[in-house]
Amino acid sequence: MRKWLLIFLIFYMGTTICCAQNERSWEEWLGTMSEIDDAESNRLELTYEELSELENHKLDLNRCTREELLQLPFLSAQQVMDFIEYRDRYGRIETIVELRMIKSMEKSTIDLLSHFATIYPEEVKDTLPSFKNIIRYARHELVATFKVPFYNRRGDVNGYLGYKYKHWLRYTFTSGPHVKMGFVASQDAGEPFFAGQNSMGYDYYSFYLMLQKWGYIRRMVVGRYRLKFGLGLIMNNSFGLGKVNTLASLGRTVNNITPHGSRTEANYLQGAAATFKLSNSFSLTAFASWRTIDATLNHNSTKVATILQTGYHRTKSEMERRRNTSEALFGGNVNFFCNGWHAGITGFYTHFNRELKPSTTQLYRYWYPKGSQFWNASIDYGYVSGRLNISGETATGNCQQIATINTISYQLTPSLTLMALQRYYPYQYYSLFSESFAEGGNVQNESGVYLGGNWLIGRYMKLLFYTDYAWFAWPKYRISESSGSWDNMIQLTGQKELWSWAFRYRIRAKKRDITGKRIAIPFTEQRARASAIYNNNNWSLQTQLDMALCQFTHKSYGIMLTENIGYSYQHIRLNLTAGFFNTDDYNSRLYTYERGVLYNFSFPSFYGKGMRLALNTRVDFTNRLMLIGKLGITKYFDRKVIGSGLQRINGSSVSDLEVQLRVKL
What we know:
two-stranded parallel sheet; 665 residues; globular
C-alpha cells in the first residue's frame, strides 16, 4: 500500500505544477450538479445520453422551438420564454454572445448552451420537406464501440452463455430540422452472440424515425420513444435530475416526445407518438405502444412477481425471464400555452397480458401495483412571468387516490430567487411510468415540503441551498414503520477567467432498520465535496476532494482524492484521471465522474481502500473520422477477491479497455 500511495503522491505533486485546460465541458457541469442519488439511479445515465445526442446534433438557435429548448435541463422556463421573446422581437440571432442581452441569461448558462446550440447559415432554411431536400441535407453518423476486460469473472468461465466482451453499434441519420433516424445494436458482456436465443446476432436492437416541423406535425416518432408530461407525476420515462437541478431549472414543466436512441433496455415505449399543432396556443399529443418486457413470474404461476429493468440475458434463468410478458398502452395529452399561462390534460390506459401479483410478504411491497389493467390521468398547470413561476400537476388512477405536486419560485431581486415545492403521494397511489421529485425514489408513499434558493453572488459565484422534509406514512424498504427524512444541502460554485471551483455540503437524517431486525434507529449521512479547475487553451487541471461520514450502528468514514489532467492540441485530446479512496464500508462509499467514450456514462462509486487510474485518448483524424480509447484500472489494497456470485473476480485489481470509432458522412 505504501508503494501505491507514494506513486500517487508523486503523480499529484507533478500535476499541480502543470496547471491548465480547454473550455469547461458540460460534463463537468453535470458532475457538479449530480448527487449520489442521481448516480445510483438511471436518471443520470439517461440525462448524459440525451445531452450527448444533443451535443452531436446541435439545435439551431434561429429555428428551435420552446419545446426543444426545454430539453436542456439547465434552462429554466423563464429563460426559455425570455429567449423566444427576444428572438421574436429582434429577428435573427447572429452570435452566441448576443444572448448576453437577455437579462435572465447568465454567462455560465450561455457557455453551457453553446455546447448544444449553434447558428446555422441563413441558407439552411425551413423549406417544405421533400425527398430532394432530405437527400440534400442528409448527414450520417456511425459509432462502433468495443470493451475488453483484462480479467475473468466466475461466470465467464462457467455460468454465462456468451463471451466476456461488450460491444455496440449506433447509427444516426439526420436531414436538416425535419428528419432524424436512429438504429442501435447492443451486446452486454456474458450474453450470447449469434448463438442460442440470439441467433440474429445482438441481444438488443432499437430503431426510431422522427419527423418534426412538418406542416401541422410538431414532432412524430415511430419506433421506440420516451415521453414526459407536466412534472412527471404519471408519465415520465425521459431524463431528469434530483434536488440540486430542481433549483437550477426552478421546477419547470415539460411536454416532450424523445426518440429512444439509448442502449437502455427498459423505460421506453414502442410504437408511435406525435404532437400536432392545433393553433398558436394549443397542441395535441397522441401515443400508442406495444412491447415485450422482462419479468419474474411467481412460482408455479403465470402471474408477474417483478418487472425487471436490468436488460441482462447472460444465464439460462435470465433468458427464461426475457420478454415473457407484453405491455400495451395508448393515451394522449392536450396542452395550452399563451402569454405565460400553461395547462395540460394527460391520460392513458395500460394492459398487460399477465396479471401483476407482487409478493407482499415484505410489508413495504403491499401497495405495489396489482392486476392487468391500469389507467392514469392528470392535469398540469402553471404561469411564468418576469419574476414569478408557478407549476404543478395533480393526478389519479386505478387507486382512486389523488396525488399532487406544486412548485412556486419568485425572484426577490435580480440575483436572488427563492423556491418552494410541495408534494403529496398517498401510499395507495401508483403510476407505472412516473418519475418526479421524490426523496424515497418512487412517486408513492411520500409527502413533503422543499424550500430552496438560487443566489448569484456578484459576477462570479452562485449559491444553491435547500432544505427538504419528507414523511413516509407506510413502511419503506429497510424501514418497518412510518418514518421521516430531513435533507439539507448548500453548494457554492464560481467561475472567473480561467478558474472555476465548487464546494458542497449535504446532511441527511432518516431511520433505518438494523439488519435482520425490525428495530429502526437513526441513520445520519454527511457528505462534502470541494473541487477546483484551472483551464486554458491546451491544458486542464482539476483537483477534487470527496468526504463522507455516516452514523448508523457505528460510524463510517470515507475520503477520496481525485486528480484529473487534460491536454488538447489540434486533433488530439488526452485525459488522465487518478484517484485514491479510503472508506470504512459501503455506507461511506464515494463516486466521481470519469470522461469516457461517446454515449457511455461513467460515474463509478468506490468503497474500501484502493486507487483508480483512467486514461482517455481521443484523436480526430478529420472532421469525419474520430477514434477514442479508454484504459481503466482499479487496484484494491484491502481485498483479494472482488465481487460475488458469477461476478466474482479472483484478484485485487480490475482493468479494461474501451475502443470507439466514429465516422461521419
